Amino acid sequence: FKYSKGLMAFAAENPIWTESLLDAYLLNPRSVIKGGRMAFAGLRKEKDRHNVIAYLKEASAE
Question: What is the per-residue pLDDT across 41-57, written as a single tens digit (0 to 9) for each?
Fold first, then answer.
């Protein structure tokens, strides 16, 4: 898979996802990663974003 230049530039500046950065991305991916190719429009409900973040934290702890 070839990643977009926008994603590569973002990753170079942000090697670790913080909760606040992930929350902003889940709300509006294109506002966080300029030039990204993600078709995902985002999650508008704060509770939905927090549930995704909680799931990722739990899954990565295993």
Answer: 999 999 999 999 999 99
